[in-house]
Amino acid sequence: MFFTDNHSQFFKPLTSKYREVLIECLRLFYLRLYSTLADYGHGVDRNQLLDTFQEAITRAPILESDEEEEGVSRFRNERELAVWILNTLIEYGWLERQMDEATLKSTFGFTRQGRLFTQPFIDIDTSRIRTRHRNTRNTRNALQAFLEMGDVHDLLDAYEYSERIISDFTDVISELDERKRELVREVEAHASVQKASDEFFDFMEKRFQPDIAVRLSADSVEKHREEIANTIAKIRRKRKQFKADAERKLRQVFPNGVVAANQSYLYFVLDTVESRLKNACDIMLPSLRKALQSFTQRADIIIRQMSFLSQQRNDDLVSMCQALTALPENEQVVVMDVTAGLMETVSVGFVDPAHIKLTEEREKRIVNTSVNEPVVLDKDARKQLYVQQVVDKAFSINDKDTREYLIDVIGKGKRVSTRHLPIQTADDLLSAVHAIEMGSVNNLNTEYLFRIEGPFDVIDNGSDGYIKKSDEYYIELVDKG
Fold first, then answer.
1. Does residue 73 have a pLDDT over 60?
2. Same structural domain for residues 73 and 157?
3. pLDDT of residue 3
4. 207-252 pLDDT tens trace
């Protein structure tokens, strides 16, 4: 549990009228310990900490409050206020006192919870240099390093970077919405088109180009999505020993309770990274583009409106309409008639027929979207359908079968008569019937061709043959060379 021991009222210092002063003290002390201002070789003693708090007190205002808290309603000077802030932050678990056993001197620093909750107040400052748009590339690089080296800490880095991809998108979308509201407030407060346009272009130059433009181009999740997916697929195809070692190391360093007992830690991390990347591509990136489009549209509308209003201030049209409204109706008619006479510059004429073109109406395509229910066939219908399929298959023949039959029959001879074609099987009968069609398929072979001569006399086979009467043809296989 979080609200235990000295954390039971952890956020109480941030509810008084001195909350802005407290935040500024925490922010300045954080920079004193962890930024370039830090002196890592020495701890911060009481006097140094109070001096830091006094500097923060001069920067931050004291907020108005109807309810005065007992004991903190009035301080004689900034030093007393700094001492009260120090005692309050120690009491509620933001800061801690550390004793040097060798020198018996006290130094001060953040508690773990105090440092973590002070970090967001530092991140709010937009003047700090941040590279949030590199998290997609960091995820790709970490996965590639794990694939090559097998270090599970690279995989955990990819897991953390992929989470920041989603949070960074959320931060930028929130910032765009806040910028849009600030733009409206500035216009309402100052009604200055110059200030509104300066705010817009200042944001586009200093925030859009270095961060959002990179996020939509070099660090685009769509650009690296396929490469990351391929790397994850290669990791899944690694040898069993590689995956077993990674699984064992992940179970040692992964926090308890995050992954189910019967689930693979390695595949959990890979599936989570893949899922976050998919959500970033399919959900967060379109949301970012929509928020950016909404911001630019709002800025464009406000700037246009302000430009129109500023132009109207020097326009006589509005004053003239107001003066015309104050006149009686009969005088208005006279003024309008005189004005109409001065504006008679309209010429009337006939329309040139050459400029008139009639376009044919496009015929609407009618698409039948009706769905017919499947008809259940009875046993007799299924029997008839089966017989029909068998008969069709039995009497089907292709050109290849016919050519092979004729080549086999002709053998070493030059030509053969249709009356001498041997018929031993049903396929031979069908090939003999379609033999003369070979004259139309000579283009299928570039070396040989069939030459068909006839018809000659009608052949009467009597009642013994398969074909009673037929025309006689001569079929010859000719070499083109």
1. no
2. no
3. 77
4. 666 666 665 665 577 778 888 889 999 998 889 899 899 888 888 8
Q: How far is CA 307 from the centre of its chain?
A: 36
Choose between 72 and 36: higher pLDDT. 36
Q: What average pLDDT is seen over the chain? A: 76
Does 192 map to a domain? yes
The domain of 90 spans: 5-123
Q: Based on the domain organization, do 115 and 138 belong to the same domain?
A: no
Closest residue by Cα to residue 441 from 397, 481, 471: 397
In a domain, 234, yes or no: yes
Greater model confidence, 277 or 175: 277
Task: State whether 9 and 155 are in the same domain.
Answer: no
Do residue 400 and residue 445 come from a single domain?
yes
Q: What is the rounded average pLDDT of the residues 379-403?
A: 75
The share of the chain scoring above pLDDT 70, in percent, equals 72
Q: Are residues 115 and 146 in the same domain?
A: no
